[in-house]
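Here is the promised in-class demo. Please do not try to memorize the tokens; focus on the logic of going from shape to residues.
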């Protein structure tokens, strides 16, 4: 997998007197968005659940162009804004089976407005959003598990992402990752989950100890500094170590981190780990800490000439700047022409589910 760091390293080798940060900005902020806009190489789709009598729906952020719009699986054709009757003689919005749409003020308007609740699917080309990207939680998502179809190739492993839920209140790092079919499964709220029995954590050394310590049993292995654990339920009412760390009574969904073991056994209270009522369809925002290009990997190295052009520009070398910019434009044009000739085949798909 090509990462930004790999592309920056290539640029540094070719033009070592330029700071890597110049190449990073050129690649991420300039080259990749420009390449994606010109070549339409990042595919995405959004699915809305239409509302009876509601004709307009939000267009997704980063839209480059629409590929196809369907309502109940039937294609809907684009039309212009002017010249279409949207209301009857009494001023009521006309409803029925949508067969046309137009775009206005970052919204898609269906003509006529839907007369039933159905799926409105918009397939489109998008700009990269690799720093923070929004997704819809897939079926199976619970209070501590999030399923996503990331659609960016290489899975984002444990500790590379933080989740920011927009629909509900959650800011939580990923603690465990697995790939189940085409779904990326992230488990949040600690690598250990247990029910704390009253007084068991009065002595943290005993709480951690093999083989009967309650936390040790829950983990099934030795406790180490950095372990995080979520209190699934508690009968823990005494003023003991966990309550002391929290400075109040322990409650279900409290999250703690082990900060010391052995003779210096200690925990810190992290916060409430509950992802209240998390369900499929909730909007999830991901902060990716290890960035990769959003464009298909086969095109990634074609961004390098644009970065070199910026590098030479920073040195005041306009001849080399113009040469490498022309190389970039040529490569970009080749990809745009090839993709157009092939009918813009899908390369990267972000699957949004069940937006209402």
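The designed amino acids, position by position:
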């Amino acid at each position: 997998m090509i990462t930004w760091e790999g592309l920056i390293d290539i640029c540094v080798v070719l033009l070592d007197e330029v700071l890597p940060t110049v190449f990073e900005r050129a690649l991420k902020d300039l080259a990749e968005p420009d390449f994606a806009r010109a070549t339409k190489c990042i595919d995405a789709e959004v699915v809305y659940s239409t509302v009876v009598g509601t004709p307009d729906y939000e267009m997704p952020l980063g839209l480059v162009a629409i590929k196809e719009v369907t309502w109940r699986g039937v294609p809907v054709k684009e039309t212009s804004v002017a010249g279409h009757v949207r209301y009857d003689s009494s001023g009521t919005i006309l409803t029925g089976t949508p067969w046309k749409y137009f775009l206005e003020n970052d919204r898609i308007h269906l003509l006529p407005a839907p007369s039933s609740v159905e799926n409105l699917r918009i397939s489109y080309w998008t700009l990269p959003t690799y720093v923070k990207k929004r997704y819809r939680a897939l079926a199976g998502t619970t209070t501590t598990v999030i399923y996503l179809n990331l659609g960016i190739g290489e899975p984002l492993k444990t500790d590379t992402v933080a989740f920011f839920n927009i629909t509900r209140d959650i800011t939580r790092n990923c603690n465990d990752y697995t790939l189940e079919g085409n779904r990326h499964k992230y488990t949040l709220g600690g690598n250990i989950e247990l029910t704390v029995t009253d007084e068991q954590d009065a002595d943290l050394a005993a709480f951690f100890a093999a083989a009967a310590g309650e936390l040790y049993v829950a983990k099934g292995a030795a406790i180490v500094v950095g372990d995080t654990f979520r209190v699934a339920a508690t009968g823990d009412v005494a003023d003991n170590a966990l309550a002391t760390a929290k400075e109040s009574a322990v409650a279900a969904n409290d999250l703690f981190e082990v900060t010391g073991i052995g003779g210096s056994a200690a925990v810190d209270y992290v916060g409430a780990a509950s992802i209240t009522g998390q369900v499929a369809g909730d909007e999830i925002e991901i902060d990716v800490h290890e960035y990769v290009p959003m464009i298909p990997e086969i095109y990634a190295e074609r961004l390098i000439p644009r970065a070199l052009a910026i590098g030479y520009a920073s040195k005041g070398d306009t001849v080399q700047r113009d040469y490498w910019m022309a190389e970039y434009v040529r490569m970009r044009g080749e990809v745009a022409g090839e993709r157009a000739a092939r009918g813009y085949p899908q390369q990267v798909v972000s699957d949004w589910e069940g937006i209402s």
